[in-house]
Amino acid sequence: MTYELYYWPGVQGRGEFVRLALEDAGADYVDVARERGGEEALLAFLEREDLVHPPFAAPFLKDEDVVIGQTAAILLYLGDRLDLAPKDEGLRLWTHQIQLTIADLVGEAHDAHHPLGADLYYEDQKPEALRRARSFREERIPKFLDWFEAVLARNPQGNGHLVGDAATYVDLSLFQVVEGLLYAFPRTTTAALARAPCVAALHRAVARRPRIRAYLASHRRIAFNEQGIFRRYPELDG
Question: 8, 38, 125, 230: which is deepest, by most CB within 10 A?
Answer without folding.
Answer: 230
